[in-house]
Amino acid sequence: MCRSRVFAMAMTPFDFRVPSLLLFGAGKAAELPGLVRRHGTRCLLVTGRASLWASGALGAIAGGLEGAGIAVSAAEVAGEPTPELVDSIAARRRGEEIACVVAVGGGSVLDAGKAVAAMLVHEGSVGDFLEGVGTRPFDGRRLPFIAVPTTAGTGSEAARNAVISRVGPGGFKRSLRHDALMPDAAVVDPELHRSCPPPLTAACGMDAVTQLLESYVSLKANPLTDALAEAGLAAAGRALPAAYADGTDLEARSRMAYAAYCSGITLTNAGLGVVHGFASSVGGRFSIPHGALCGTLAGPCLRATVERLKEGGEVRHLAKIARAGRHLTGREGRDLGADLDGLLGLLDEWARALCLPRLGEFGVTEADLPGLAAATGCKDNPVVLSPGDLETILKERL
């Protein structure tokens, strides 16, 4: 009798957190006013500053809200949110009796919106509540929050954290985290992704792929996260090159939007690995877009992980990485070595084809590597990499 691979594995206990509501598909943004009205008739609309306004899509969203009798206040986010940005938006809007926060944009906009929704009902700075930086526990209180992603990348629309950054010497990239930060609703409309330019499509897409890979091989993975990661990897493997080549390809945009949403759930429930360890250390020191950093380091990090697993004879973890490769490449399994080589080769190929930037383009030098390696944690990577391994990874992408 054939048994499912999932149920053949040991069923150890696990917890699983999911968002409240997902509206997925082309045209779903038209349903946003009805979602907002469940909470009241005044919303704060948090957006980016450029392409979506230029395309007319944000104007249509704002007009739809106002046409439904919803008073709209606006706040703009440029770049990754800082404590100062979140604090200033919250301070300006606390007296407006906002009923709901709606964030329309990329991952940084969604993270900013989440944090603002929290800080509108808290005194002090959001920095007071950040993991590893703040000193006050975050109790989860916030205003209702709706996420409308316009890129397929961070999966913030399905995650329970908001990443807040301060870049420079002594900088950081830390999370405001609580189960209650999962959005009340996510409206994932691939039509809104069509204005995303190729470099951003590549960076965001590689962030989603990296999150799926890392959560799949994480030490905290479970059968539900595995199933979602496999589905997301299969979708992204076919869609990312197509979306990069032709941003108007709605099917490719839809598949990438689905992959990113899955990655948000899997990272929330299974954690991430060494690439996102670098995202904290390197991303806190240098002004590097998060997706670009993850994408450029994904291949070298996985290669180092595979090498150390081989040295330790960790066949179970290697087999899982190989299985991830089969889902991403779409190739039938041949043998362990060929599957591993196929995955690593694809990541190298994408780094070239998607024109992923090197670290040196953002000011990272060889002299910075020891300090960056020392500040990098391996998170839930299936094997711990040494400081020497971490320096080698960075050097490869200088």
Tell me what the structure shows.
The protein is an alpha/beta fold and 398 residues long. The chain has two domains: 22-193, 3-Layer(aba) Sandwich (Rossmann fold), CATH 3.40.50.1970; 198-396, Dehydroquinate synthase-like - alpha domain (Dehydroquinate synthase-like, alpha domain, Up-down Bundle). The chain has 15 helices and eight strands. A six-stranded parallel β-sheet has the order 1-8-5-4-2-3, sandwiched between helices. Helix 6 (107-119) links the parallel strand 4 and strand 5. The longest helix has 23 residues, at 223-245. The termini are far apart.
Rg is: 20 Å
Strand order of the largest sheet: 1-8-5-4-2-3
3D shape: globular
Query: What are the secondary-structure elements, in order, as H or E?
Result: HEHEHHEHEHEEEEHHHHHHHHH
The CATH class of the largest domain turns out to be Mainly Alpha
Q: How many separate domains make up the residues?
A: 2
Q: Can you summarize the main beta sheet?
A: 6 strands, parallel
Q: Distance N terminus to C terminus?
A: 52 Å
| DSSP strand content | 5-15%
Which fold name corresponds to the CATH topology of the largest domain? Dehydroquinate synthase-like, alpha domain
Summing up helix and strand content along with how strands pair, one would put the structural category as alpha/beta
In total, the number of strands is 8
Uncertain residue segments: 1-8
Specify the CATH architecture of the largest domain.
Answer: Up-down Bundle
CATH superfamily of the largest domain: Dehydroquinate synthase-like - alpha domain
Mean pLDDT: 94
